[in-house]
Amino acid sequence: MKTAAPVKLENVTKRFGKDVTAVDNVNLDVKAGSLLTLLGPSGCGKTTILRMIAGLERATEGKIFIDSNDVTKLPANLRDVTMVFQSYALFPHMNVFGNVAYGLEVARRPKDQIIKEVDEALAMVGLEGLGERATNALSGGQQQRVALARALVMHPQVLLFDEPLSNLDAKLRKYVREEIRELQQSLGITTVYVTHDQEEALAISDVIVVVNKGKIEQIGSPFELYTQPANKFVADFIGSASFLKAKYDGEILSLADYKIPFKQDIRAGEVIAMIRPEAVILSDDGLSVKVKTAAYLGSMTDFSFESAVGEVIANITGEGFMDIKKGDDLHLQFKTAGIHLLEK
Amino acid sequence: MTDSLRQNRISNAWMAAAMSAIAFLLLPFGRPNRAFLEIDNALRPWNLDPSLSWLVWLVLLAAVSAIVISFLPINTVLKGNLLGLSGLLGLLAGVIWLVSTKTPFGMGALISMILLINVIGYGLSESGRIQSDAFVASSIIFVSLFIILFILYPLYTVLINAIIVDGKFTLTKAIKVLTGQRFIYINNPYTERNEAMLIGISSLIGGLAVAGYSIYNKLKVNKIVIFALIGAAIGFVVGFSAFARGALPTSIGLAAIVATTVTLLGLFLAILGQRTRFGIIKKSLASISLLPIITPPFVLAFAMIFLFGRQGMVTREIFGLRTNELFGLIGVAGAQILAFTPIAYLVIRGSVASLDPALEEASVTLGAGRWTTFRTITWPLLRPALANAFLLTLIESFADFGNPLILGGDRFYLSTEVFSAYSARFDQNEAAVLGLVLLVIVLSIFFAQRRWLGGDSFVTVTGKPSSGKFVELPRAFEGFLIIIFTIWTVLVLSLYGSIIYGSFVKIWGINNTLTLQNYKDFMNQGWPVFLYTAKVAAISAVPAALLGFLIAYLVVRQKFWGRNFVELGSMLSFAIPGTVMGIAYILAFNNGPWLLTSSMVILVLAFIFRNMPVAIRGGIAGLAQIDPSLEEASTTLRASSSTTLRRILVPLLIVPLIGGLIFAFVRAMTAISQVIFLISSGNKLATTLLLGWVEQGQLGRASAMATIMIFSMLAVISLLMLLTRGRGSRGIG
Question: Which CATH entry fits the domain spanning B171-181+258-463+471-502: 3.90.1150.10, 1.10.3210.10, 1.10.3720.10, 1.20.58.340?
Answer without folding.
Answer: 1.10.3720.10
